[in-house]
């Protein structure tokens, strides 16, 4: 089936953001005598998490940011993880904190997230950040949702007045992306594992955000002709949550997997780290 949709190239858009971040990071380091610092907390031995952390550390170094890694063992308790994060929150040499998801089952992730000082929550995972997104107040946004909005903006795709179907309701992706799009005057429908007749909801949407973590759950035949498809899923084999080829034959714009939403997530994380550093010294 031929691809007719235009590809939303998150890799290209992220490169522009990285260039701006590098310039701001250099200015910060020159003015403060130290680089902006992102501390990453990794609990346990999940291979994918280790890969993600290495990728973020490498990008931070390329942009002139200090990357500080805190590795905690798999048997870490909630109290121990909270203490480690709280110490980073109180460390004046740390500007941003990222707690890599997921944590081992015995760790209360919400409690660990809440140990992050709001001004250092560059991944947008605390209740303060969630409230800021809901209230359109100053604060940090969840990185993948913000990356999705920024990618739409980069291609000058209208959001106001559009019908959006968000498939997924996680606290770090589905819910916040809906809040951000609602703040931009979209009409947002949230769908999830218990939604009846998911295809009918998707078929009504001008913008579809797939954020459920199930390979090719969103069938191409469901896509409204001319709709914009933002696939935030990543599953083994470089497969997203959307049936790409079939969806691309009906959509006007679509994100690839990989190379679509993923690079934008890291770009927003790096940008918000520099922003956090600048705010702390202003």
UniProtKB/TrEMBL annotation:
> Where along the chain is NADP(+) bound?
168-170
- Residue ranges annotated for the Tetrahydrofolate dehydrogenase/cyclohydrolase NAD(P)-binding domain, each copy included: 142-280
InterPro entries from the UniProt entry: Aminoacid_DH-like_N_sf, NAD(P)-bd_dom_sf, THF_DH/CycHdrlase, THF_DH/CycHdrlase_cat_dom, THF_DH/CycHdrlase_CS, THF_DH/CycHdrlase_NAD-bd_dom
Query: From what superkingdom does this record's organism come?
Result: Bacteria
Give this protein's Gene Ontology molecular function annotations.
methenyltetrahydrofolate cyclohydrolase activity; methylenetetrahydrofolate dehydrogenase (NADP+) activity
Q: Which UniProt keywords apply?
A: Amino-acid biosynthesis, Histidine biosynthesis, Hydrolase, Methionine biosynthesis, Multifunctional enzyme, NADP, One-carbon metabolism, Oxidoreductase, Purine biosynthesis
Annotated Gene3D superfamilies: Leucine Dehydrogenase, chain A, domain 1 (3.40.50.10860), NAD(P)-binding Rossmann-like Domain (3.40.50.720)
Give all residue intervals belonging to the Tetrahydrofolate dehydrogenase/cyclohydrolase catalytic domain: 8-123
Which reaction equation describes what this protein catalyses? (6R)-5,10-methenyltetrahydrofolate + H2O = (6R)-10-formyltetrahydrofolate + H(+); (6R)-5,10-methylene-5,6,7,8-tetrahydrofolate + NADP(+) = (6R)-5,10-methenyltetrahydrofolate + NADPH
Q: Which pathway does it take part in?
A: One-carbon metabolism; tetrahydrofolate interconversion
Q: What is its EC number?
A: 1.5.1.5, 3.5.4.9
Q: Is-annotated flag, keyword Translocase?
A: no
Gene Ontology cellular component terms for the protein in this record = cytosol
GO terms of biological process kind:
L-histidine biosynthetic process; methionine biosynthetic process; purine nucleotide biosynthetic process; tetrahydrofolate interconversion
Q: Which family does it belong to?
A: Belongs to the tetrahydrofolate dehydrogenase/cyclohydrolase family.
Role: Catalyzes the oxidation of 5,10-methylenetetrahydrofolate to 5,10-methenyltetrahydrofolate and then the hydrolysis of 5,10-methenyltetrahydrofolate to 10-formyltetrahydrofolate.
Subunit (UniProt): Homodimer.
Record-given protein name = Bifunctional protein FolD
Recorded source organism is Flexivirga oryzae
Q: What gene is it encoded by?
A: folD
């Amino acid at each position: 089936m031929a691809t007719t949709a235009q590809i939303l190239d998150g890799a290209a858009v992220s490169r522009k953001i990285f260039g701006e971040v590098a310039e701001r990071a250099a200015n910060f380091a020159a003015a403060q005598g130290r680089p902006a610092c992102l501390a990453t907390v990794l609990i346990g031995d999940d291979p994918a998490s280790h890969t993600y952390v290495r990728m973020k550390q490498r990008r931070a170094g390329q942009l002139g940011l200090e990357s500080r890694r805190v590795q905690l063992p798999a048997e870490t308790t909630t109290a121990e993880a909270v203490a480690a994060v709280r110490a980073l929150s109180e460390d004046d040499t740390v500007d941003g904190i990222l707690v890599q998801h997921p944590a081992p089952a015995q760790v209360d992730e919400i409690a660990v997230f809440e140990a992050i000082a709001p001004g250092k929550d560059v991944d947008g995972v605390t209740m303060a950040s969630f409230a800021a997104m809901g209230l359109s107040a100053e604060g940090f946004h969840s990185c993948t949702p913000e990356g999705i909005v920024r990618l739409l903006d980069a291609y000058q795709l209208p959001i106001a007045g559009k019908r959006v179907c968000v498939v997924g309701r996680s606290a770090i992706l589905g819910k916040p992306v809906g809040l951000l799009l609602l703040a931009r005057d979209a009409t947002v429908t949230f769908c999830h594992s218990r939604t009846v007749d998911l295809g009918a909801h998707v078929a009504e949407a001008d913008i579809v955000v797939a954020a459920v973590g199930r390979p090719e759950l969103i069938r191409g035949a469901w896509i409204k002709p001319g709709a914009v498809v933002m696939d935030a899923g990543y599953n083994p084999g470089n497969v997203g949550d959307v049936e790409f080829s079939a969806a691309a034959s009906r959509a006007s714009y679509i994100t690839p997997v990989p190379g679509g939403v993923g690079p934008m997530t890291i770009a927003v994380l790096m940008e918000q780290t520099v922003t956090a550093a600048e705010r702390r010294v202003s």
